[in-house]
Amino acid sequence: MNNHQAFFNSQVPELLSKLEHNTEQLWGSMNASKMLNHLWAGTRIMMSKRTIALEVEAEKLPKLKAFLMSDRAFGESLPKPQVYLEYENENPLAFMALKESFLKDLTKFDLLTSTEKDFWSMHPSFGKLNAEETRQLQYKHIRHHFQQFGLM
What we know:
The protein has helices at about 5-15, 30-45, 60-70, 85, 95-115, 130-150; strands at about 120-125, 125-130. With about 150 residues, the protein is mostly helical. The chain has one domain. A two-stranded antiparallel sheet has the order 1-2. Helix 1 packs antiparallel against helix 5 and helix 2 runs antiparallel to helix 6.
C-alpha cells in the first residue's frame, strides 16, 4: 500500500505549488480553479459522515472496491457523482485561498482518517468505506486530477 501520509503532507503541497490558475488541463473540462474546488469538495464529503445514495448497483460494490484498493488509476473524463454539486462552490474562492483551504482540510482529513478508530465515509460509486479505503480513494482522486493538469 502507498504511504498516504507522506503523499498528503509532503507531495501534495509540493505538487500543488506548481499549479497556477491558468495551468491547462490535458483532458476534461475543468479549469484549475474548478479542479481544486472539486478536490476540496471531495475532501469535505469524505469527512462529512453523511450517508450518500449509491449511484451503482449494490452487487457491483465488491468489484469496485477491489479496483479502489488496487494500483490501477481512475480513467480520464469520468462522470462526477451528483453529491459533489452540493459541495462545490458556484463561485470558487480566489485561487490562492482555494489552495490554502484545500490543503488545510487535507491536513484535517489525514489526521481524522489516521486516528479515528471507527472512521467511515460514503461514496456513491464505492459504498461505505473504512479509513484505509477512504484514504486510498483520496490518494487516487488527487493523483487523477494532478495527472489531468500535468503535475504528475
